[in-house]
Design a protein that fits this description.
Order of helices and strands: HEHEHHE
Low-confidence stretches: none
CATH superfamily of one domain: NAD(P)-binding Rossmann-like Domain
Structural class: alpha/beta
Length: 128
């Protein structure tokens, strides 16, 4: 290292930290305030809702999120399957599934709040 190199290095380290940063504060678009991240009501459509994945994993997990108030207010789930179910049949089947697999115990109040957002549509890929 030469005397010139030593002088440059010591000059850099003798400057205050503020001199190294820009005068303008940059905004990180991935970080936002809680108010910026407010979620509007949403709907999830589950095709093949009568299947095993929905019964064992999806509905129990969604129920757990709902009980934990982690879903947006007004969140709804539309189930689509080839079965000839009514909305009530669908809710009954999903309650059985949630009771069997959810981490959170199912209460009448918790279920009623969750079930209000459940609806069913009969549909088939071959017969849209």
């Amino acid at each position: 290292m030469t005397d010139t190199d030593t002088h440059v290095h010591s000059e850099v380290w003798s400057q205050p930290f503020d001199a190294w940063t820009s005068a303008e504060e940059s905004v990180n678009p991935l970080r936002s305030t809680q108010a910026d991240r407010a979620v509007v009501p949403a709907a999830m459509v589950i095709f093949g809702v009568s299947g095993d994945l929905t019964s064992r994993k999806l509905m129990p997990a969604l129920y757990d999120l709902a009980v934990d108030s982690s879903l947006p207010e007004g969140f709804s789930i539309v189930g689509v399957s080839h079965r000839d179910w009514s909305d009530e049949d669908f809710r009954e089947k999903m309650r059985e599934a949630v009771t069997a697999s959810a981490r959170t115990p199912v209460t009448d109040e918790g279920w009623q709040s969750f079930a209000n957002g459940l609806s069913y549509v009969r549909g088939d890929f071959n017969d849209p």
